[in-house]
């Protein structure tokens, strides 16, 4: 085989493996909650804990993983200090920890806190957002490159929106109860590239943006209190809007099948919107709309094949036909436990983590199928962060510890 052909194949394979192994941002490599890995643990208990690391502060940001490095945020002293830290993926040791901001904390809901936004990384740099605590950029080795003060973020709920890398841009949703905007900065310098005003969110919002490739163009899609919006990545121009039915647009949209699937935090509705539209597409591009039973404050939905799966805080999971919105089944995952983490998926299975640290693994289909319920056997820890996956392992973050689940190597 010619040398250049061998090199090409090696480069493509290495790139593919690296992409599949990394979980570089909120909801994974494509913002869908999916891992491309095929060897993730399905059944486990505390004997499968490869390592457990005590964290310096509380937080609900998911682990962002690139190579053998895990990036997290944490809040200390009830939000008076915000830190970014890096953990060795193989051993669990904290490699570095830096204080990004210190000051008087803004109000936040007891279920939220001050370190809920997941970091984004391209392997060379890591980005962290703390609301009033600013937007920060570090090298992979922990050197601070720049920081931005983005405002006071009025309101009593706190902030949760995670940053999104789009080429040379870093995109940040800056929702609050007033002066809301979507911002894109140069990822190297931190300087503004564009800023697009958004409607205020007095009842709740603060969703994270997702990059969608329609085939004809790319769109940044962002949920909101009154509508879901598609933006042009290069300019921040609003491409399309689709009105929602009820408030609390904090769940991240689930992309797939040329659509985005949208659920709002308050009880009421779930719907699907075709991407690629222009202007108000409420009447032209809403593929289906289904009244939704269940409680408020929904985690983000997830799409597996033609099955759209959601769960409410009480642990009621619902599966919809993704083509029609028809409810296929509605079952309780576990009695007496609360679910706030968004699910992830791999190899056709969905992982739902409850606040006690137990993970229900489902196999979506026309009928409810619970594969297993995995308990860590820990007491007194609160798990609100969504799981992450990398290198054949699953990472679970409580308010006090980070756990690596997998097969322990000799």
Describe the structure.
The chain is globular, with a radius of gyration of 20 Å. The relative contact order is 0.14. It starts with a helix and ends in a 5-residue tail after the last strand. The protein is mainly β and 410 residues long. The protein is 5% helix and 40% strand. β16 (227-231) and β17 form a beta hairpin. The protein has a 5-stranded mixed beta sheet with strand order 14-15-16-17-21, with no helix packed on it. A 4-stranded antiparallel beta sheet has the order 1-33-32-31, with no helix packed on it. The protein is built from 1 helix and 33 strands. The longest helix has 19 residues, at 3-21.
In short:
By secondary structure, this protein is mainly β. The protein has one helix at 3-21; strands at residues 49-54, 64-66, 69-76, 81-88, 94-102, 120-121, 125-129, 135-139, 144-148, 164-166, 169-174, 181-186, 192-197, 210-213, 218-222, 227-231, 238-243, 254-256, 259-263, 268-274, 279-280, 286-292, 302-304, 307-311, 316-321, 327-332, 344-346, 349-353, 359-362, 370-374, 388-390, 393-397, 401-405. The longest helix has 19 residues, at 3-21.
Task: List the SSEs and their pairings.
Elements: H1 3-21, E1 49-54, E2 64-66, E3 69-76, E4 81-88, E5 94-102, E6 120-121, E7 125-129, E8 135-139, E9 144-148, E10 164-166, E11 169-174, E12 181-186, E13 192-197, E14 210-213, E15 218-222, E16 227-231, E17 238-243, E18 254-256, E19 259-263, E20 268-274, E21 279-280, E22 286-292, E23 302-304, E24 307-311, E25 316-321, E26 327-332, E27 344-346, E28 349-353, E29 359-362, E30 370-374, E31 388-390, E32 393-397, E33 401-405
Parallel strand pairs: 17-21
Antiparallel strand pairs: 1-33, 2-3, 3-4, 4-5, 6-7, 7-8, 8-9, 10-11, 11-12, 12-13, 14-15, 15-16, 16-17, 18-19, 19-20, 20-22, 23-24, 24-25, 25-26, 27-28, 28-29, 29-30, 31-32, 32-33
């Amino acid at each position: 085989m010619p040398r250049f052909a061998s090199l090409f194949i090696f480069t493509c394979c290495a790139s593919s493996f690296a992409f599949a192994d990394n979980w570089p941002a909120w909801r994974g490599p494509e913002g869908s909650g999916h891992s491309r890995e095929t060897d993730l643990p399905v059944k486990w208990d505390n004997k499968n804990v490869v390592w457990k690391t005590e964290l310096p502060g509380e937080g609900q940001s998911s682990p962002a993983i690139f190579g053998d490095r895990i990036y997290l945020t944490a809040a200390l002293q009830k939000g008076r200090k915000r830190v970014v830290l890096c953990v060795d993926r193989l051993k669990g040791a904290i490699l570095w920890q830096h204080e990004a901001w210190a000051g008087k904390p803004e109000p936040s809901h007891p279920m939220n806190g001050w370190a809920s936004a997941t970091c984004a990384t391209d392997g060379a740099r890591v980005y962290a957002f703390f609301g009033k605590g600013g937007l920060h950029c570090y090298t992979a080795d922990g050197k601070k490159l720049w920081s931005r003060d983005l405002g006071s973020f009025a309101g009593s709920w706190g902030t949760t929106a995670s940053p999104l890398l789009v080429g040379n841009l870093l995109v940040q949703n800056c929702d609050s109860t007033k002066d809301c905007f979507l911002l894109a900065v140069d990822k190297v310098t931190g300087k503004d590239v564009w800023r697009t005003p958004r409607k205020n969110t007095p009842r709740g919002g603060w969703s994270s943006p997702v990059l969608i490739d329609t085939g004809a163009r790319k769109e940044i899609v962002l949920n909101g209190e009154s509508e879901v919006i598609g933006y042009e990545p290069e300019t921040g121009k609003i491409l399309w809007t689709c009105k929602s039915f009820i408030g609390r647009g904090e769940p991240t949209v689930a992309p797939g099948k040329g659509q985005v699937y949208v659920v709002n935090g308050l009880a009421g509705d779930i719907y699907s919107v075709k991407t690629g539209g222009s202007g108000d597409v409420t009447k032209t591009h809403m593929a289906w709309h289904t009244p939704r039973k269940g409680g408020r404050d929904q985690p983000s939905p997830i799409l597996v094949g033609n099955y759209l799966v959601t769960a409410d805080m009480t642990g009621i999971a619902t599966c919809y036909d993704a083509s029609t919105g028809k409810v296929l089944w509605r079952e309780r995952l576990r009695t007496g436990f609360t679910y706030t983490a968004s699910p992830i998926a791999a190899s056709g299975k969905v992982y739902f983590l409850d606040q006690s640290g137990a993970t229900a693994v489902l196999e979506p289909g026309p009928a409810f199928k619970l594969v297993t319920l995995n308990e860590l056997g820990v007491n007194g820890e609160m798990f609100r962060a969504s799981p992450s996956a990398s290198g054949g392992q699953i990472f679970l973050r409580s308010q006090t510890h980070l756990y690596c689940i997998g097969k322990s190597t000799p």
